[in-house]
Amino acid sequence: MLRSAVRYLVFIILFASWNATWGQSGSSKPWLQQYNEHHEYDGIYVVKKVAIPCKSYETFLLDGNGRKLTPAYRDIGDFSEGLAEFVPFGSDSNQGLHGFMNRNGEVVIPAKYTGTDKFLNGKTWVIYPVGKQFGLSYIDITGKVIYEIPIKYYKNDFLISKATVQYVCNRDSKEDVIWFRKRDMFLLNWNFSKFDEGRINNSKNIYHFNFLGKYGIIDKNMILRVPVALDDIDPTYKFSGQGLERVRYGDKYGYVSPFTGDLIVPFEYSETRKPTNGLFWVKKNGKWGCIDKTGKVKINFLYDEATGFTGENRSAVAINGKFGHIDKSGKIRTPLKYDFASYYNHGISMIRIDDKYGYIDTTGKFIMEAIYDDALPFDRTTTTVERSWIRYRLTMKGEESFVGLSYKLNAVLILLGVILFVWLNGLLFKRIQAKRAKKAMLKKK
């Protein structure tokens, strides 16, 4: 599916054997004979003189009469959609930068890119230095940027210092920038087979793909939105929502648009939770806060614990072991004074004070006092509570009905029963042994 290092080996072999024969097939234009290679594009010619194969060569664009339309370039690539990639001469350590010319030899897009490719469907990709990294953008035939990958968010990848620029002998327009992780090759740009292109075009929105354990995202227009660097994605929406999909890079989470693949929320959070009521609880520097679907912080990072917002516009939060509730604006609605507080459901939250459980409404008023030894939140219209070793079914009106003994009491009774059984069994065994000993003594007499 993906282009690999084999491509370079194939090109090297093919071009090494082709150099001596390309363009020498009995042309009727005698002026072509002075060049080692030539290729025609509807009446114009790309020609090359090779002094030393793979080391010293120069390339020109000629018109139909053999007149030079350009100065000598290191390489000129194939024409596509009216433009051809060209590479001017550079130093020995730099094989040159890449730009595009038209059929008249005029520079349309200046040579400023480390790598690129021919235009297809009005666009191509370009690679260029961005600080310590190589970046990738897509441009149209005027050089206008269509999309720029926010490479700065993938700070551990695509480093210039770890890049290798590979090119084919005598073909500087065939350069590619690659990175090796152990023995595996990674690229910023990716080409797909026609079969895979069909799958991508038929995808509903963005298309995730996996390469050696890393994920990338490409859109239906074959524009790479996220480079192959992600460590985790969430296509099943276990942690995603509100028009965002959670992704992970390294040990930090961010969010992308599932429609375009654009990175909406940078990789800043160590934990996240599925959004509720339009807000995402996210953890940063050991504290929970809330962001909206644009990534804007709506509730500051203050809390050690937090639950999702329920229909009552409440979230249970905790600071330094004390629980209370806030609303979506971050305003405290019940003071952070409880040893525990649950989420709200049916307008009721379960709280714990001094090892006793009770229930409060959204104003903080007690509906059922904190008198229970154990309890559960009101996930339904009734719940189960325990007091004095007895379990009750509790309604939202505070009405109790007997359910049975507490699990703790049942456990104690079972343990006592086992102890009693063992004791009685031991006592019985001793009596049997005593009778047997008595019979043995009588026989001896």
Q: Mean pLDDT across all residues, rounded?
A: 89
First and last CA, distance: 99 Å
- Output the number of helix runs: 3
The tally of strands reads 37
Strand order of the largest sheet: 4-5-6-7
Return the structural class: mainly beta
What characteristic shape results from the CA principal axes? elongated
Helix percent reads 10-25%
What percentage of the residues does DSSP assign to strands (E)? 35-45%
Main sheet, how many strands, which sense, barrel? 4 strands, antiparallel
Rg estimate, integer Å: 37 Å
Report the uncertain regions: 1-26
Describe the structure.
With 445 residues, the chain is mainly beta. It is built from 3 helices and 37 strands. It has helices spanning 6-18, 194-202, 407-444; strands spanning 37-41, 44-52, 56-62, 75-80, 83-87, 98-101, 107-113, 115-116, 124-130, 133-139, 145-148, 164-168, 171-181, 184-187, 207-211, 214-218, 224-230, 232-233, 245-249, 252-256, 263-269, 271-272, 280-284, 287-291, 297-303, 305-306, 315-319, 322-326, 332-338, 340-341, 349-353, 356-360, 366-372, 374-375, 382-387, 390-395, 400-405. The strands form 10 sheets. It has a 4-stranded antiparallel beta sheet with strand order 4-5-6-7, with no helix packed on it. A 4-stranded antiparallel beta sheet has the order 8-9-10-11, with no helix packed on it.
Key attributes of the depicted protein:
3 helices; 4-stranded antiparallel sheet; mainly beta; 44% strand; 445 residues; 37 strands
Secondary-structure map:
Blueprint: H1 6-18, E1 37-41, E2 44-52, E3 56-62, E4 75-80, E5 83-87, E6 98-101, E7 107-113, E8 115-116, E9 124-130, E10 133-139, E11 145-148, E12 164-168, E13 171-181, E14 184-187, H2 194-202, E15 207-211, E16 214-218, E17 224-230, E18 232-233, E19 245-249, E20 252-256, E21 263-269, E22 271-272, E23 280-284, E24 287-291, E25 297-303, E26 305-306, E27 315-319, E28 322-326, E29 332-338, E30 340-341, E31 349-353, E32 356-360, E33 366-372, E34 374-375, E35 382-387, E36 390-395, E37 400-405, H3 407-444
Antiparallel strand pairs: 1-2, 2-3, 4-5, 5-6, 6-7, 8-9, 9-10, 10-11, 12-13, 13-14, 15-16, 16-17, 18-19, 19-20, 20-21, 22-23, 23-24, 24-25, 26-27, 27-28, 28-29, 30-31, 31-32, 32-33, 34-35, 35-36, 36-37
